[in-house]
Each structure stands twice: as structure tokens, then as C-alpha cells.
Amino acid sequence: SFLIPMDVIPGRMALLVTLFLVLVNIFNTVTTNTPKAEGLTAIEAWMLACILFVFGALIEYAAILFKKQKYVSGQHKVNLRIVCKDNFKYEVHEKSAARHAISMQQLAEEYWRIDKFFLISFPILFFIFNIIYWLAFIL
Prior knowledge:
By secondary structure, the protein is mainly alpha-helical. The chain has helices spanning 9-33, 42-75, 104-138, and strands spanning 78-85, 88-95. Strands 1-2 form a two-stranded antiparallel sheet. Strand 1 (78-85) and strand 2 (88-95) form a beta hairpin. Helix 2 packs antiparallel against helix 3. It is elongated and about 85 Å long. 4% of the residues are buried.
């Protein structure tokens, strides 16, 4: 999902949510069809790790969308003052100047850097998990 552009919200969310629900369904099927064991079995540990990685991708995307929404709402703030003069009340709207004027291109580049970081770190973390997993359950 990190390769899908941030602006394609329906595509990225559909991919992540569908993958998450499929993994949860597979996990439920595995836990109901396997013999009862004390503690966590190897397949349950594997499925939980996969679910956590997808959930982490969902959280990362939610954080990016939240950061974008915070930036957009900060750009459109309007100060409202009520001025009383000559027995009349006047409403004065003043647009607040942006504290940090960042262009949309700079913002898109920052979001791409975040996505690129997770695009590199998630496979590395999954590879490390695989090494630990297979060493723990084979040996």
C-alpha cells in the first residue's frame, strides 16, 4: 500500500481494510480448525504477526491523513472580531497568515518520504521477524 499515492484514499484504504479483514478471517478459521493447544501455536503466531504488520500500515496511513487534515485546516483559519463603533456591531473577518508557508508540492514530498521510509522498514522488519520465527520454531 505504500506504493499507492496518498491522494488515492479509496484505493489505498480498500486494499488495507480488505487485507486486514481477510487476515482476521483466516486467523479465526485457523484457530477454530486446529486442535486446541496450550499457549500460542506457530501458525497463530504467524497470523498475528501478519495482522499486526497490516494494522501498522493502516496506522501509518491514518497518521499521514491526520497530518494532512491538520495542515489543510490550519490553512483556512479565520479570525473573527466583533468591533463596536457608533452603537453598531461589526464583524471583522481576518484570514490568519500561515505560520509555515509550505507548498503542496513540499507537503507531497514529505508524505512520500514517510511512505518511502515505511516501504523500506516494513519489509526489513518482516524479514527479521521471519528469521526469528523460523529459528524459534525449527530449533
